[in-house]
Specification:
Elements (H helix, E strand, L loop, with lengths): L1 H22 L5 E3 H4 L1 H5 L4 E3 L2 H4 L4 E8 L5 H7 L6 E12 L2 E10 L2 H11 L5
Parallel strand pairs: 3-4
Antiparallel strand pairs: 1-2, 4-5
Length: 126
């Protein structure tokens, strides 16, 4: 039972994350489960639908829905760099008696990539 619950929670977090990007002006973001088994097999959970037409999504996102903190370093290092800036999205949960509740949602990336995003947002060129 818990395996099914965990799987459903993870898939729900992927869908919620894709929706979050769409709400932030990334209209083509979908889960890789719906679009590309190959990309999903690489540990990437989000991408642009019809990339040949809409372009490559600029982030390489892996979504984790867990009670414990994932090993962010290993996850980021394992994500392929040629699909965008590697980011781990973590939905932290806590079990209370019979239910799990969300206690926080986080995006983790390398500081260097964070600074590059700030430069891009602010139009800073090297």
């Amino acid at each position: 039972m818990s395996g099914s619950r965990n799987r459903n929670a993870g898939h729900g977090w992927e869908r919620d994350s894709a929706r979050g990007f769409r709400e932030c002006s990334y209209p083509f973001v979908v889960t890789t489960r719906s679009e590309s088994k190959s990309r999903d097999d690489k540990g990437i959970d989000l991408m642009n639908k019809d990339e040949y037409k809409n372009g490559l999504f600029e982030f390489s996102v892996q979504c984790k829905c867990t009670q414990k903190n994932p090993d962010y370093h290993s996850l980021i290092e394992e994500l392929p760099k040629d699909f965008g800036i590697p980011i781990v999205f973590h939905r932290k949960t806590l079990k209370t008696k019979t239910r799990f509740r969300v206690v926080g949602e986080y995006a983790t990336l390398r500081v260097e990539d964070f600074y590059n995003l700030l430069r891009k947002i602010n139009g800073v060129t090297d």
